[in-house]
Amino acid sequence: MTDSGIGIADDSPRYWSYDGEPTLLLGGSSQDNLFQVPGVEHQLDVIANAGGNYVRNTMSARNRRESVLRWGAENVWPFERVGGDEDAEGDEADERVESDEAGETAGATYDLDRFDDAYWERFERFLDLTAERDIVVQVEVWATFDYYREPWDENPFNPANNVNYSPSESGLEETVETSPTGAGPDTQPFFWSVPAELDLGVVRDYQQRFVDRLLAATTQHDHVLYCLDNETSVTPEWSAYWSDYLREHTDERVYVTEMLWEEDASHDQHDATVNDPERYDFLEASQNSKHTGQQHYDIATTFRERATDPARPVNNVKIYGTGDGTQIDFTGSEHDAVERFWRNVFAGHASSRFHRPPYGIGINARAERMLRSARAVTDAVDPVACEPRNDLLSDRAPDEAYALADPGRQYAVYFPRGGSVTLDVADDTRFDVRWYDVEACQWVDDQPADGSPAGGSPVRLDAPYRKQWVAIVD
Predict the structure, then answer these.
(1) Distance between CA 128 and CA 122 in Å, rounded?
(2) Taking the chain (474 residues) in consecutive chunks of 10 residues, what is each chunk's mean pLDDT?
(3) Residues 320, 287: contact at Cβ < 8 Å?
(4) How many CA atoms lie within 13 A of 373 on its CB side?
(5) Can you tell me whether residue 84 is helix, strand or coil?
(6) Whole-number pLDDT of residue 170
(7) pLDDT at 323
(8) Confidence (pLDDT) at 448
């Protein structure tokens, strides 16, 4: 554990610490590549004021048309655009290719030996702004979807778009129609560049140059976590290479994981990250948020159980679920999102963040309420000192209630939609019961009769109404 910034808590290695204190990472945000959003400081203030301390940041430049329409400014790529018909070293190559009003470039050619200042200035400013607000940034090094289909058509690494290599020299294809995700191995040659695979040295040199520039920015700070890819199906050799590269090319302590496509924690696709704690300091369980109800919780606890030898944090940098009218089949509803958020907390996970619209609720008003409520609950009962203990609940239906407990000292029980359960508490201890209204962000005084102080017997917990509640028994 470090004395400042982000680290793994010494005494509670399933959780992160910040400035030497164990902490639960909670958040939500409007976009994946948050560093490219104009005026992002306002959004960061909203997150921090609601109790959030965690955001995702992909190093992405795709969706440029969407960026112009939504934010009034285009996403920029990390490399400099030059005149495609001129030699990259010539004076005329310095002329930028103008963008049309939709953010698309016409005939753009990139020079991978020259970085685009705007891209990296945005990123460095974003790191400064998050550091000022004590917001931890989980950076995704390779923005997976930038390397397929339409985004690949304009990506500077595409040999059709740069002056540095041809398809034959690089081993890369100018058109990639395959999907970046699935149970089988990824087939985009870009993700097979490492020595243990296709060994595409020309491409890898520029990949390394990109990562070196990223590290030059991130290692000036101590509030950054690293995720190599996004919901990927790359081979373990790719992930291992870049985890090692991050560690070997900085003197700073880095914390690294991989986000894999398979949502089932028991799937063998997760074996490499589970079984190699020297390379993967924490696990990423975001894909589990495709599931709902008891299944979502059960898979969450399986992730936690697999992160046991040694104990490591389990993060959820994406929680699906949206109610904006553009719901995608796998995401579920807005209420699914908030239930997933709370189940992650009660499954003993180290982080939980609402994904961006249209796949998540981002940092809308309800997300803000959830952050405030989660901070109120975790101020009342310390999740770091507790364990998931549904075994202490009886008379429980599937998905009715979830318990965190430090037996004999403190208990918290989350009810997604009201309900009644019996909590087994220490026989020789007297407890008080308090109820927190999650949606209203407040404690309630008119507790039901069975919520009165109890000792020497199980405590019956009857949620006041059919809505989200947390009962604190301490």
Answers:
(1) 10
(2) 81 96 97 94 98 98 66 84 55 39 56 97 98 98 94 95 96 88 76 97 98 98 97 93 97 95 90 96 96 97 95 97 64 93 98 94 96 98 97 97 95 97 83 94 69 65 94 94
(3) no
(4) 27
(5) coil
(6) 97
(7) 60
(8) 46
Q: Where are the beta strands (DSSP E) in 141-255?
A: 224-227
CA distance 450 to 236: 53
**278 CB burial (10 A radius; 0-12, 13-18, 19+):** exposed
Report the candidate in 435, 383, 436 with the shortest Cα–Cα distance to residue 410.
Answer: 383
How far is it, in rounded angstroms, from Cα 264 to Cα 285?
9
Q: Length of the chain, please?
A: 474
Quote the tokens at residue 201. Answer: 């040295």
For residue 39, give both structure tokens.
């005026």
Tell me how far apart the alpha carbons of residues 253 and 71 are, in angstroms, rounded to a whole number.
35
CA proximity to 370, closest of 358, 359, 360, 385: 360
Q: Which of 306, 313, 285 is nearest to 17 (CA)?
A: 313
Q: What is the dihedral of CA 172, 177, 182, 185, to 10 degrees?
A: -30
Structure tokens of 298? 């059960």
Look at phi and psi of residue 440 and say left if phi exceeds 0, alpha if psi is from -120 to 50, else beta.
alpha
